Amino acid sequence: MKQKLVILTGSGISAESGLKTFRDAGGLWENYPVMDVASIEGWYRNPQVVLRFYNERRQQLGTAEPNEAHKGLVKLESRYEVRIVTQNVDNLHERAGSSQVLHLHGELTKACSSRDKFHVTDIGLNAIEWGDKAADGSQLRPFIVWFGEAVPAMEEAIEWVSQADILVVIGTSLNVYPAAGLLNDAPNNCRIYLIDPNEVPVQRRGVHIIRKKAVEGVKELIELLLN
Ligand code: APR
Predict the structure, then answer these.
(1) What pLDDT does 144 receive?
(2) Which of 35, 38, 159, 203 is 20–30 Å from 175 (CA)?
(3) Which domains can be identified in the chain, with CATH numbers?
(4) Residues facing residue 213 across a β-bridge
(5) What is the pLDDT of residues 92-129, one digit of tens each?
(6) How many angstroms does the Cα of residue 79 sit away from the middle of ligand 1?
(7) pTM of the model
């Protein structure tokens, strides 16, 4: 029986693939008013601005490749039952070959009905324009969990973390709930590692900090977990 290894990732793991994080210097929220482009109110107020924001990010995704950190996590599957809970909406974990990936905040390569978020279609890297319709005739929208919306995958994420033997947190400032609260759902005897080049305040004691960027940090993690 393989030990259960759950990995919570944020935008920092995709930084070395050239995708921007949110709250770092030069991050997305420095250049965009987050509530205009990533909230349900922003969608109601000016949907074209929201569509353009995600069309730009989907276009950038087309130029990004999984980096050695994404690929390193796949190597851990030889020894552990690896499950990835990601806040990221890119598909770099899947393209690196990870077999179990749960997206808490949606996926850039999918769209849904603006009437029923569970009517989802794959759009790859295509743009969504105002006037594009879902099957139910409503305006097509990005399959993204915006601020002000529920996080349907949270229940499953809590289930995964509450059974983890090891939890690894990579590239997230732990600013956004409920995702950030997952650390509290790890069992008391769960080993916790955190990979980030910057300081990330965590309430939990006994967290093994690897103060590095994701590519170097995952290399060190593999040394610790595979050798
Ligand atoms: N390697 C690892 N971590 C990195 C790197 C790197 N090369 N570069 C930056 N980081 C770290 C930063 O130090 C920071 O802790 O990644 C983290 C990025 O934090 P945020 O920009 O807040 O991104 P994230 O935590 O993923 O945001 C969570 O907020 O706006 C919402 O929905 C959005 O999913 C997103 C959520």
Answers:
(1) 98
(2) 159
(3) 1-19+65-105+151-227 (3.40.50.1220), 20-63+109-144 (3.30.1600.10)
(4) none
(5) 999 999 999 999 999 999 999 999 999 999 999 999 99
(6) 27
(7) 0.98
